[in-house]
Specification:
- The chain is α/β, with parallel strands linked by helices.
- A 7-stranded mixed sheet has the order 1-3-2-4-11-5-12, sandwiched between helices. Strands 8-7-9-6-10 form a 5-stranded mixed sheet, with helices on both faces.
- Strand 7, helix 6 and strand 8 form a beta-alpha-beta unit.
- The longest helix has 26 residues.
- It is globular.
- The N and C termini lie far apart (63 Å).
- The relative contact order is 0.16.
Amino acid sequence: MPATTRTTLRRGLAAAAALPLLIGALASCGYGSDAKNDEKKVAAEGAKLSADTVRLGYFPNLTHATALIGVKDGLIQKELGGTVLQPQTFNAGPSEIEALNGGSLDIGFIGPSPSINAYVKSKGKNLRIISGSASGGVKLVVNPDKIKTLDDLKGKRIATPQKGNTQDVALLNWIAEKGWKVDPESGKGDVSVVRTDNKVTPDAFKSGSIDGAWVPEPTASKLVSQGGKVLLDETALWPDKKFVITNIIVSQKFLTEHPDVVEAVLTGTVKTNEWINANPDKAKASANAALKSIGGKALDAKVIDPAWPSIAITNDPLAATLKTQSEWAVKAQLIKQPELSGIYDLKLLNKVLKAAGQPEVSDAGLGVK
């Protein structure tokens, strides 16, 4: 091979290798939260649907178990046939929303607060919630030497993952119901609310720079493994002990142009959820294997064993609880009164559920007309 040809080939290969890194960097910019492209597309077989690929975003969290298992075990890809599933992982809601808005993501698993914020800021034009995924899995864990009762939280430093995120809103609401005051922007007040990335929270807890944290799994159980104590499980604050922690959202543009692909993904998630609930121990192992594949390390048994049963996997978006969470955010002065009409489009999900012989779910009056 001539030297000039070899040089051109090497440059071409280098450019191709750099492309996934560039995409990941673009998806993560602006919020200080990194997103990463999984380094390979999931292999596809069978007839292709209306899109060549579908880009699916999710977090390496147990509360995103449907995605972890559905992607790893091929349950979602199986329903897509020749349409290639391209998974991408994120560490925070804002970066995932930015990717959805920027057109580098089609469908995503995400918490209710980022869904609400994005829907309101776009005046209802950028996304729809098309399914539920998980309920629960959020706990207040404290240093038992410093905090023995809920009243002891006054004057203490309690972490949440991010200002305005789902757990932050829940803590601010709980503090307000105690009659205490906290500035929602700075987090200063009768309780110091310290916004701390979940990856950093265990070290902050171990060092004593925070006294506790209102966090999702597996961070909560990591703190317990370091000597923390669960003082409150958030499910205790909700009717029927259920509240949405993870939804599935879709770009409205992608939903309009490729409803067959969206339906196939939902068929895959419904089947994944059915398998998870029928095989909890195998599902726990599969989710942990997925976490190891993504981050290079599986969770210790002392973390995943108590964390796993606290998360309920469900197709129901629990829409009434999202409405309540939005009211909490308004009360905390994090957002203005939102117009949420049309945030849900559950038609395809209910079609899939009906075909599977399962009960349909409600949008609590917040669906598209």
